[in-house]
Write a structure and sequence with these properties.
The complex is a heterodimer. By secondary structure, chain A is an alpha/beta fold. Chain A has helices at 29-38, 57-73, 84-92, 95-98, 105-110, and strands at 6-12, 15-24, 44-55, 76-80, 101-102. The termini of chain A are far apart. In chain B, the strands form four sheets. Chain B has a six-stranded antiparallel sheet with strand order 2-1-6-5-4-3.
């Protein structure tokens, strides 16, 4: 059942949007870090988790680190929440409350 | 075979003049051609055949008996079975046997040169069906056969080297591969950490002489001597080839008088010593030799032996490294888990811990649990650190020992989690940790969660409760705090804490999930903690069996009042 992790990048409404799909875990966290380092200087970044099938604690730690870097550098970072498992873990670990998490991409692009 | 019919018919019509022309043609052929008369004597050989057999002229050839020529060679079929004069294809054909093209391996006993020949024979018929002789065309296929052998040996060595992590067994298999297809004798000596040379594997073609093989295997361990060939090969990392061994060299090679007399008994012809090298050092020597086969080893043999040596060295090094890593992992793992569950008055305990299967089978995971006591108050901690392997292990160690220390100043779950969060933030790197901390009392527990799946309480009637609401994961946020919940526990109720690995266990189509876990726990109401966790472990194993993927870390604790 395991599917490959993939990161797709496009630009939408002035923001860089990284769309994650597949499973983000200890095996694939490195490729997300790589993708994040390429957009580290972009003013507005959105990480879209809607197509993400699975995330584990190592995957979460990459999101937390990205959030910390964004706070330090003044980057605007938003996250589009994912499916059941992703939502459960983001909520359980307190990320939903503490990170800029929305249900749709539009909310992040036009809101705030 | 149409070719034979054609050639025989042609031969039958030969006039004397025609025969002269054919002789000229045969002389020009690259292939060796011989003719044996009905009495079995060799009466004709073209230029290539004379050269092959080592004669200057046909006259010289005709003066030697066929048996005498054969005596200069060691002749075997392609399976290594010795062939006698009566087995030669042309001799068999003269006896009226049916003969297919035959592959033969010959070793010139004087020069030690090895040849592979493909012999095709046909009858030369005279008038009225009488046999005039037998024509043999000898095709030299040495290059093809040698390349084939080398390719096969290298391919098989790859299989052998990948088959086991027991390097002694691997080396025994490599030695068995070289003997007898490549050489008559092969041995491997390894240098150990204290400078001793240890004989690890040895084999001689002469299987009948089991005693000899045993003697070769059981050579005593000796100190490395840089004056002698093995020591020189280890020091220089370069091979030594002794094409034509002398008694003086044998004396140098021998470890002691006893070994020397055994070597003399073997009467080796050629020996090559190749290094077992890994980057920057040589860890041993492989010795390959010929004796009975009479073959003289050459540069091509050295190249092949060196390749075998390199591969064997990597296998040895990997196996040793694996052993070392496993020891480290085992030590770490012992340090990472409580030796045994404590006895806590009023509570029955059970635990489940199964680290992820990693490629190296180093069983250190990011999941952990710990029971600790402060002035009669018992606490439990279960958690999951991001990442895997030794890096994760060092963080789990920090969490477990940090919790013990924190409990001494304030044995409250929320404040312990707070101390752990601080400890994690001070760690370099970006490790996160989810954790559930529990304080046990007579009739209730105090519980606090940092981003960890809630505990499930199973009542005797099978109904379930989940506690507590989770605070944030440890190591992520600056200004966090963790809520505590006090939950009363009835006698006979079971409290189960688990890591994400349980519900994230991968099955054939989906993950195990919370619902399966809840259903299983509900069905186990009234069972003791040990039984419940055994059934959970079995259920996870069965669920994962169809997935074909490796398992993640799994930890669980069950407590019953």
């Amino acid at each position: 059942m395991q599917s490959h992790f993939q990161v797709d990048k496009q630009t939408e409404g002035g923001a860089s949007v990284l769309t994650l799909s597949g499973e983000l875990d200890v095996a694939s966290a490195g490729s997300l870090e790589q993708a994040l380092s390429e957009v580290a200087n972009d003013k507005h970044l959105v990480i879209d988790l809607r197509q993400l099938e699975f995330i584990d604690s190592t995957g979460l730690s990459v999101l937390v680190a990205a959030n910390q870097r964004a706070l330090d550098s003044g980057q605007r970072l938003g996250i589009v929440n994912g499916g059941t498992q992703v939502q459960r873990l983001l909520t359980l670990t307190g990320l939903t409350e503490r990170l800029q998490v929305a249900d749709t991409l539009e909310q992040l692009l036009h809101g705030a | 075979m149409p070719e034979r019919v054609h050639r025989s018919a042609l031969a039958a019509r030969l006039t004397r003049g025609d025969a002269a022309i054919f002789r000229e043609m045969f002389q020009l052929l690259g292939e060796a051609v011989t003719v044996r008369d009905p009495s079995g004597a060799l009466v004709y050989a073209n230029q290539a055949a004379l050269k092959h057999l080592g004669f200057a002229s046909i006259d010289e050839l005709q003066r030697s008996s066929s048996q005498a020529i054969m005596d200069d060679y060691l002749v075997e079929d392609e399976h290594g079975q010795p062939l006698t004069h009566d087995d030669i294809p042309s001799v068999r054909l003269l006896r009226g046997e049916r003969v297919e093209p035959t592959l033969m391996r010959t070793v010139n006993l004087t020069t030690g040169e090895v040849r592979w020949d493909l012999l095709k024979t046909s009858v030369l018929q005279a008038r009225r069906g009488r046999i005039r002789g037998v024509l043999t065309v000898i095709d030299d296929v040495t290059d093809v056969k040698t390349a084939e052998l080398r390719t096969r040996i290298l391919a098989e060595s790859g299989r052998i080297l990948a088959s086991s992590l027991d390097y002694r067994e691997t080396l025994r298999n490599i030695v068995a591969l070289a003997v007898p297809s490549l050489v008559d004798y092969c041995a491997v000596d390894l240098l150990d950490g204290s400078g001793d040379i240890e004989r690890v594997a040895a084999r001689h073609r002469d299987q009948a002489s089991a005693a000899l093989a045993e003697q070769l295997r059981s050579l005593p361990t000796t100190k490395l001597d840089r004056q002698r060939p093995i020591g020189q090969v280890i020091e220089s990392g370069t091979s030594q080839l002794f094409q034509n061994l002398t008694d003086a060299t044998l004396t140098e090679l021998a470890r002691d008088q006893d070994h020397l007399s055994r070597l003399r008994e073997l009467d080796p012809r050629s020996i090559v010593l190749v290094p077992l090298s890994v980057p920057r050092r040589t860890i041993g020597v492989m010795t390959l030799g010929t004796d009975r086969s009479g073959r003289r080893l050459d540069d091509a043999d050295v190249a092949l032996a060196e390749q075998l040596g390199r591969r064997a060295a990597v296998a040895v090094e990997n196996a040793r490294l694996h052993t070392k890593l496993s020891e480290v992992a085992e030590t770490l793992q012992k340090a990472l888990l409580p030796r045994a569950l404590p006895a806590i008055p009023g509570w029955e305990l059970a635990s489940l811990y199964r680290p992820a299967e990693t490629e190296l089978r180093i069983d250190v995971g990011g999941d952990f649990y710990e029971f600790f006591e402060n002035e009669g108050v018992w606490l439990a901690l279960i958690g999951d650190v991001t990442g895997k392997g030794v890096a994760a292990a060092s963080v789990t160690s920090l969490m477990r020992h940090g919790a013990r220390v924190a409990a001494r100043s304030e044995p409250a779950p929320a404040s312990i989690l707070s101390r752990l969060d601080e400890a994690l933030a001070e760690e370099s790197g970006r490790a996160l940790c989810t954790a559930l901390c529990l304080r046990l009392a007579d009739d209730h527990v105090v519980i606090s969660s940092a981003g960890h799946p809630p505990a499930i309480i199973v009542a005797e009637d099978g109904s379930l409760r989940q506690v507590p609401e989770a605070g944030p994961v440890l190591g992520a946020f600056d200004d966090a705090n963790w809520p505590e919940e006090t939950v009363s526990i009835q006698p006979g109720e079971l409290l189960v804490m688990y890591t994400d690995g349980v519900i994230e266990t991968v099955g054939e189509r989906e993950r195990f999930g919370t619902e399966r876990l809840r259903a299983l726990l509900s069905s186990q109401a009234g069972e003791d903690p040990k039984t419940v966790l055994e059934r959970l472990e079995a259920a996870l194993a069965e669920f994962a069996s169809g997935s074909g993927s490796g398992s993640d870390d799994v930890a669980a604790l069950a407590l019953r009042r």
